[in-house]
Amino acid sequence: MSDIYNSDGAPHEVMPDPQMVCESQKISDISKTGYHLLKENRVSDAIDCFTKILMMDENNNYALVGMGDATRKQGSIREAVKYYQRCLVHHPGNNYALFGLADCYKAMNQYQKAIEIWEQYLVHDNKNITVLTRIADAYRKVRDFTNSKNTYMKVMEMEDSNPYAIIGLGHLHYDFKEYSEALYYWEKMMKQGSSDVDIRVLTSIGNCHRKLKTFSEGIPYFETALKRESSNFYALFGLADCYRGMNQITKSLEYWTRILEHDPRNKMILTRAGDAYRNLKDYENAKVYYEKALNVEFDTYAVMGLALIAKEQGKYEDALTSFKRLIQQDNKNYRLYIELADCYLKMNNKRGAAEALEDFQRLGIKCVKITEMLDNIK
Asked: How far apart are CA 316 and CA 349, in angstroms?
C-alpha cells in the first residue's frame, strides 16, 4: 500500500510511460506530414506515411482515414471504402470516415447508401450545410422530389443565398419538367450580382426558355455563355435549337455546323443539320448529312429524313417502303403513321391512308393528331 499512497493518504501521481508518449508523438508527427502531402497531391508519399503509422498502430483512426482519402484520390474507390469501413468498426461515428465513405458511395452512383451514411453523420452534426446539400443532391439523383426539396429548403432556412441549394433546386425542378420553377431559382443566382456566374447557370436558364418555347428570351443567355467559351456544346446546341424553334433555319444551321466542327461524328447533330438543309429545300446537302449520320450508326430520324425527301420529290413508293420499315422498328411513333398516311393521300389512296392510321389506333395509344387526320379522311 505504501507504494501506492503518500504518507498523507493521497495517491501517488502515476507517470505516463515515456515510450508510449514518444510513440504517440511520433504517430502524430507522421500523420501531420501525411495529410500535408495529401494536400500537395503527393499521394504516394502520403500513403507511405500512413502505412508507417498502421505498422505501429494497425487501427489508428487518422491513418485509416488518410489511407481512405489517398486511395480515393488515386481513383481506387472500392479500396477507399475498405479503409473507411475499417475505421468505423474501431472508431464508430468518426465524422471524417463517414464523410469519405458517403462520398465513395456517391462516386459509385450508390446514392441510397450515400444518403444512409450522410444521415449517420448528421446525428453528430445536424446543421452541416455541406452534408445537407449532398443529401439533397443524392435524393435528386434517385428522383425523390419531396425529400430532395425538403432538404434543400433546410439549407435555405439556414443560409438563404447558398448557391449549391439554389442551383440544386433549379436542377430538381428542371428534372421534373417544372421549367418555370427551375427558372425562378436559376434567375435567383443571377440576381446575386455575380458577374462571373457559372456558365452552367447561363445554359440552364437558356434551356428553361427553350423548353418553355420562349426561344427569343433564351438566346441572350446562350450567347453570353458562348462569349465565355466559344466551343461550349450546350450553348451552341441551345442557340441552334432556339433558332430552329423560331423557324430561322439558316441561323440554326450555322450553329449545328459549328458543333460538327468539333464533333463531326455526332449522329444527332448530323441529323439536325440534314433536317435544316431539307427545310431549306437543299435536298442534296440534306442527303449528305443524313447519310453521314447513318454511317455512324442506324438512326430512325436520318432514315425518316431521307424518306421525307423522297416524298417531297414525288418518289412515293420509295417513301412508303421506308416508312413501313421504320414502323416495324418503332411501331409506337405516331409521326411515322402520319407520314405514311400522307404518302397514300398523295397517291390518291384514301383507303391505304385510313388503314395506316387505324393500325396505330389498334395499339391502344391515344393521339389527337392521328384521330383528327383519320376524321378528315373519312
From this structure: 12
HEC sequence for 40-108: CCCHHHHHHHHHHHHHHCCCCHHHHHHHHHHHHHCCCHHHHHHHHHHHHHHCCCCHHHHHHHHHHHHHC
Consecutive H or E run containing 134: helix 129-141
Regions in the chain scoring below 70 on pLDDT = 1-23, 193-195
Q: What is the C-alpha to C-alpha distance for residues 26 and 37, in angstroms, rounded to an integer? A: 17
Strand partners, 11: 5
**Rounded distance, CA 23 to CA 31, Å?**
12
Residues 280/253, Cβ–Cβ less than 8 Å:
yes
Cell of 136: 439533397
Compute the distance between CA of residue 2 and CA of residue 5 in angstroms, rounded to an integer. Answer: 5
Q: Which amino acid is at 20?
A: M
Residue at 243: amino acid letter: Y
Q: What is the pLDDT, as a whole number, of residue 3?
A: 46
CA–CA distance, 134 with 100 (Å, rounded to integer): 12
pLDDT tens column, 114-144: 999 999 888 888 889 999 999 999 999 999 9
Q: Which residues fall within 8 angstroms of residue 76, CB to CB, at 6 or more apart?
A: none
Q: The C-alpha cell of 53 is what?
A: 503509422
- The whole-angstrom separation of Cα 63 and Cα 69 is 10
Contact assessment for residue 283 and residue 251, using Cβ atoms and an 8 Å cutoff: no
Name the β-bridge partners of 5.
Answer: 11
Q: Which residue has the cell 501521481?
A: 13
The model's pTM: 0.79
Going by C-alpha positions, the residue among 334, 322, 325, 330 that lies closest to residue 361 is: 334
User: How many CA atoms, within 13 angstroms, populate the side-chain half-sphere of residue 59?
Assistant: 9
CA distances from 94 to 52, 70, 77, 86, 127 (A): 21, 17, 19, 11, 17
